[in-house]
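User: Predict the complex.
Assistant: Input components as received:
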Amino acid sequence: EAGVAQSPRYKIIEKRQSVAFWCNPISGHATLYWYQQILGQGPKLLIQFQNNGVVDDSQLPKDRFSAERLKGVDSTLKIQPAKLEDSAVYLCASSRWSRRISRSMYNEQFFGPGTRLTVL
Amino acid sequence: TQLLEQSPQFLSIQEGENLTVYCNSSSVFSSLQWYRQEPGEGPVLLVTVVTGGEVKKLKRLTFQFGDARKDSSLHITAAQPGDTGLYLCAGPIDYNTGKLIFGQGTTLQVKP
């Protein structure tokens, strides 16, 4: 099966500009995640969707970050305006995890290659 | 707050050496996962350990889950340059959402 697709792979912008990232999950995966990974650190969850609904966005800086998954398939993550500290790799992941079968299933997540964002 | 702490943060070794990396927590986890992330790529799941004391082997990689399910280790025998990457452990912290928490990772560099 095709993996998680992300674009662009690299983006360089100046602070206060806006940027958008796109993700297409593995076909049939109900749950989609956006993570921020700062160099040398583990991924930090920004937002989680199940189908087209938000499950967890507690760590999303909502004053500047937004995300949508309108048709329950692909998703976009936007930053507006960008700050220097937003420089990071933005990873998209998907999984078959579903709230209906939560305790009986290990949440194996499949990651895309990420988008490396540099804010100057 | 459940946290996963990994050690060492960085490891640079010669090809053929053995190594162990650790993932520790003060909290009990129902399961722990290990991912490997190669430069420029996303993490890829290596294994999930679910039973206290469990040992799983994946070729030259041996994973162990602590008896109390608070820690895990990854041992690599005869490391090769292809093992280079960031090793991440992750555990579930919310069964309602399936949310995973990741450790900060161990960066492994294997020199030929």
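The longest strand of chain B covers residues 85-94.
Let me know if you want any component modeled separately.
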